[in-house]
Known about the structure:
Blueprint: H1 2-34, E1 47-50, E2 53-54, E3 64-66, E4 69-73, H2 74-80, E5 86-88, E6 93-98, E7 101-106, E8 111-114, E9 117-120, E10 126-128, E11 131-135, H3 140-143, E12 145-150, E13 155-160, E14 165-170, E15 174-177, E16 186-190, E17 195-201, E18 205-209, E19 215-219, E20 223-230, E21 243-248, E22 269-272, E23 275-277, E24 283-285, H4 288-300, E25 304-305, E26 308-310, H5 315-323, H6 326-342, E27 347-351, H7 360-376, E28 380-385, H8 400-406, E29 409-413, H9 431-444, E30 452-457, E31 459-465, E32 471-477, H10 481-484, E33 491-494, E34 499-506, E35 509-515, H11 518-531, E36 535-539, H12 548-555
Helix pairs in contact: 6-7, 11-12
Amino acid sequence: xxxxxxxxxxxxSITKILSIIxxxxxxxxxxxxxxNFIILDKNKTINLVINNKNVTSNLxxxxxxxxxxxxxxxxDVANFFDKYIYEEExxxxxxxxxxxxxxxxSLNSNKITINGSDKxxxxxxxxxxxxxxxxxxxxxxxxxxxxxxxxxxKVVTIDSLDREKKKANVTSNISVKSSTxxxxxxxxxxxxxxxxxxxxxxxxxxxxxxxxxxxxxIKSNKLTNEVIVRxxxxxxxxxxxxxxxxxxxxxxxxxxxxxxxxxxxxxxVVSPAFxxxxxxxxxxxxxxxxxxxYIEWAHxxxxxxxxxxxNAEAGLEVTSKIxxxxxxxxxxxxxxxxxxxxxxxxxVNIDFENMKQQDKNLYSRFIIELTPRLKDKKLVTSVDVTxxxxxxxxxxxxxxxxxxxVADYIVFMAYDEYGVSSTKPGTTAGYDWVKLxxxxxxxxxxxxxxxxxxxxxxxxxxxxxxxxxxxxxKTVSMKNTYSIIPEGTQKKWDDNLKQNxxxxxxxxxxxxxxxxxxxSLKAKISLIKENNLAGVGSWQKGMExxxxxxxxxxxxx
Length: 557
């Protein structure tokens, strides 16, 4: 019994001692917190803060500072600013693009060219081992940033000039904490009236950046004189709401149609066939006086003009030659830009088809390099592409993901499912095929829906199969389709294709037509609203039935 009592007393003593120790530890912690004796966060190496976020842990290489110039490695510039930055071996330059700028930086001198204008830098590109470093502090105009080297705290801050910037003063001496937890380390200390940059806030705590570049939290009631020192730059779209584009095609030897005194219900963009590459790869125009009158007519009716730029005349080999030369791409881009300015055009529709699969990345480079030059002048870049599955030179030649990321709009030409080269009869644009292809744009290619224009056909094909089983086709416009079908021919609705189908005999040949009419087009147009796409394109003006424009207008609401 005595032994049990003794053990009990020992346990009570140990419990009391532990309680005292825990109490002392808690008292010390409270005192430390109350008196801000937690050790300050000290940087051993240079920290990088971009847009109020410490990204040091994401750096692939160290930040370098030499002779007051701040350097980032090419890999880090790619990570934070331009994922498409690359070294152009032909000209011994680094080419980088960002928003409205394209810059060429010489590897052998202190020269930088921004949107065609030369400028000297005090520092040049440097190499450390196998790593290429760019003088980021000399490239503020390219990336639209302000950059500061905070020597005392070993922090470099970079802020985008298109973002909102808020400042405030602190009302008393205060410690900045790493988190809002009761026990958190002090990352910086502020004195009364010091200013801070506000990152985010609620009723209790505000996340801030100090003058030392440290990011942390203080109580919201410790701030005063909050002011917005820089407004957020809102990018305004050229067209608000859904796009309703129609191509107005005429051949290089033709001229723009006379549309004076007319209007097209519901459309807001016209794409006339103004520009093309000739057999030598030169940009040619097909505008003339009639084209100028066309532009005037379009603008008077409130339509934007995004002319086609076609490579059909140039062909596969000449297009490849241009894509494989930075100099040739640059010259073409300058020509396009100058033509847009000369004729007061609102954008372009790049319609390059029949290209080599191995040139896929180089065609993407062309779009990457073109878009900022046009955007700088508030002009739109739209790019036509085919369905994701198909031949090497008609489908596999496009990197839809990159084009969709870079261009203002990517136009899915949802035709021809069965085209002129098909040996088997079939529909021009079945609903199921259009929907399946569109899902690949959205899910496989990961393109934002508000950048996709779904282009629909105003035509179909009459298929003729002879007694030997050989099939050929002939294009027929939407407005003429029913007039060529013999009277009394029964049409049948295909619910998968969302189309009417007819079949009949003509002089011993089997005729088949998958009809594009109001019903089939309404089904395809429904995909725009269903997937919140940017809008619709239609090929081509002149093939439609009159009622389609009012239907397009209503369906896009």
